[in-house]
Design goal:
Rossmann fold; alpha/beta; 17 helices
Length: 385
């Protein structure tokens, strides 16, 4: 593919444009806000300059990358593209309108991709007369840095569209995993307990934000604790994804949003970008951490077993292969281990016992154990032999 169209000049769109241009593709970057296009190019030049200073690329390479990116202010100008990737905000009606226009503008050979993180690719494709060329290609932020890309075929999509898309993503040096078109795909579905159960532990008064974060980094080996990570992502963004997944799964209690996070979002306490989230970034606040190892282990295990349960259920429902599930969580959100491999190490029986303890205590459906884990206990099997 020689020409790539990117719709949306925000951080994700400009990041995808950078990847494509770095891989010697001509890029046409569209946004209906001309100021956003100017800002995107300025930001990209600054990023490339820093890469030159760090000797990651040389000055000539930087100039060539920039020269391959052109901005356009009309969708019609994307008619020459081999692939168009939409990377705008998560509003399915707006996305469907864009794809409906692209379906008319672009020749039938053009692949139309959405970078949605949780919305239905099938629904987006339904707005097109040629839905077989529509696919989900979900990058993770920041796109040039994060290796994972989820590829999501819609039910109307052709195998040719899938194979061409995967081949392209592979050629860009990314780690591609294939996911079924269900809410949240792999990562944004399986990762929900990392945030949701941490919030629940806080709401029950078991521990404060600092202690829960400390438990997950020091005991679990995660790079960031859930509250630090939510502040980094943005509570507005993270809450919106949780709410979207919750509604899309017909209000399954496993994905129930938290009032604590909702109130933070309503208060404008988005995290680092607003200088206030679960932590106050405008001052050197004193962080009090409970270092009772039994408490820390209990917190870590509760969140970890919920994550393992979600990963097992994704495999049970054929969302992705076990290899792609583990790859997605290590490469997409930097988990220290693949969750299914981790379950093998802990012991499937221990995972089921711990989940049953939570269910027996709370009698809430959010703690129901995946049927796959129960079957594996009965058959004394593992995810990996």
């Amino acid at each position: 593919m020689k020409t790539i169209g990117v719709i949306g000049a925000g951080s994700m769109g400009s990041g995808i444009a950078q990847i494509a241009a770095t891989n010697e593709c001509k890029v046409l970057l569209f946004d209906n806000n001309p100021k956003a296009l100017i800002k995107a190019l300025e930001k990209l030049e600054n990023i490339l300059n820093r890469l030159v200073q760090k000797n990651k690329i040389n000055q000539l390479q930087s100039e060539k990358i920039i020269s391959r990116i052109s901005t356009v202010e009309n969708l019609v100008e994307l008619s020459s593209c081999d692939l168009v990737i939409e990377a705008i905000f998560e509003d399915i009606d707006v996305k469907k309108n864009i794809f409906s226009e692209l379906d008319v503008i672009c020749p039938e050979s053009t692949i139309l991709a959405t970078n949605t993180s949780s919305l239905s690719v099938t629904s987006i494709a339904s707005s097109c007369k040629f839905p077989e060329r529509v696919i989900g290609i979900h990058f993770f932020n920041p796109a040039p840095v994060m290796p994972l890309v989820e590829i999501i075929p819609c039910i109307q999509g052709s195998d040719q569209t899938l194979q061409i898309s995967k081949k392209l993503i592979d050629s860009w040096g990314k780690v591609a995993v294939i996911a079924k078109d269900t809410p949240g795909f792999i990562v944004n579905r399986i990762a929900r307990p990392f945030y949701g159960e941490a919030l629940r532990i806080y709401e029950e008064g078991i521990a404060n934000f600092e202690t829960i974060d400390y438990a997950m980094t020091e005991i679990g080996g995660f790079r960031m604790g859930p509250f630090t990570l939510m502040d980094f992502i943005g509570n507005d963004v993270n809450y919106a994804v949780t709410e979207s997944v919750f509604k899309s799964f017909y209000f399954d209690p496993r994905y129930k949003p938290s009032f604590t996070q909702k109130r933070h979002a309503e208060a404008g306490w988005f995290g680092k970008k607003s200088n206030r989230g679960y932590y106050d970034y405008s001052s050197e606040e004193l962080r009090v951490i409970t270092k009772d190892r039994a408490v820390l282990v209990s917190i870590c295990n509760r969140i970890l077993f919920m994550l393992i349960n979600e990963a097992a259920d994704a495999l049970f429902l054929n969302i992705a292969t076990k290899e792609d599930i583990d790859l997605a969580m290590t490469k997409g959100v930097n988990y220290p281990k693949g969750l299914l491999k981790w379950a093998d190490e802990i012991g499937i029986e221990k995972c089921v016992y711990s989940l049953d303890q939570l269910y027996n205590e709370y009698k809430e459906d959010r703690y129901r154990c995946s049927p796959l884990l129960r079957r594996m206990v009965n058959s004394k099997s593992k995810f990996y032999s």
